[in-house]
Enoyl reductase (ER) domain-containing protein
Amino acid sequence: MTDQAHRVVLAARPQGEATLDDLRHEAFDPPAPGDGEVALRTIWLSLDPYMRGRMDDAKSYAKPVSLGEVMTGQTVGEVTASNHPDFAPGDIATGMTGWTSHAVMPGDELRKLDPSRAPVQAALGVLGMPGLTAWVGVNDILEAQSGQTLLISAATGAVGTVAGQVAKAKGCRVVGVAGGPEKCDFATSELGYDACIDHHANADGRAMAEAIAKVAPDGVDGYFENVGGKTLAGAIQNMNDFGRIAICGMVAWYGGQNLDQGPMGPVLWRNMLTRKLTARGFIIFDHWHRFPDFLDEVAPMVADGRVSYRESVTEGLEYAPKAFLDMLKGGNFGKTLVRVGADP
Ligand SMILES: NC(=O)c1ccc[n+]([C@@H]2O[C@H](COP(=O)([O-])OP(=O)(O)OC[C@H]3O[C@@H](n4cnc5c(N)ncnc54)[C@H](OP(=O)(O)O)[C@@H]3O)[C@@H](O)[C@H]2O)c1
């Protein structure tokens, strides 16, 4: 399917863990752009854990994808036709066009990218939504201070990569949790984490608690929560008095699995009470006003290499469903991207 437009739609609502049968790759004919609209050819598609939630017909902070509808997602694409004064053919832009090779969008919902500033796909990762989420989580939710110990789960993923390096730059001691020795080596040798715990090597919450205590003997002041499960069970036992938890995600539970691995409600509440903790959930949509401040601080760090990052690239939109399901189980290493079309 090289010339024919193609897309991935939601074929069925997952029953528990999502499967390949829940997503369908199909050809379609894109419409012509109307007034104020822009036609794009997709170059990069971002795959993100939140997409799993959109597959369910459940009340959440965003509306679910309908059956037969193109899967939601942010892309970077090349403008092929424009009826909007701010865009011309050849421009590179990012927007929520979805899992599709071609899209028509209102120009007002797109953001033009400057390809000379950074690789354009960085707008989907380190300099985009995941990077902003990390930066807001560390600065505004955890209110991290120099000298504090921070624990960050999914430490080498799109969010964790930036959270760890931003926290380190603030003078924190940073402990990561990641799946496997290779990711942990990367966390300490490339991303500057002071220590990293391999959650595969720790079977349950008690083992995680012991592993965290070993590398954070003075306790944890801030926990950047990305996963839930046994990592949360271990983290909660190591929080210092008046510690803070930024509840960013709980990917271990997104398909309804690992529910027996988290802390029991009473254990969670008792630790919240006796350690006098503050836990705050946040959804990045409420924090977009921080985007310019984030870019001012982090874009130079990316440009001069103080913030490094890794990408997991899958070639071809038809393979996006598999890449997505793999990511939910840790099959990615860094920001998960699909190359949908060639660079101009
Ligand atoms: N609140 C918001 O607005 C917001 C915005 C963006 C992202 N998020 C959340 O932030 C989290 C990270 O997102 P991301 O885009 O950076 O994804 P990511 O970390 O690049 O990919 C997901 C990672 O989750 C880890 N994981 C999966 N199952 C796990 C389990 N059972 N136990 C422990 N870790 C597990 C895997 O890493 P390992 O192999 O290292 O285990 C996997 O690589 C997600 O929960 C996401 O929903 C929230």
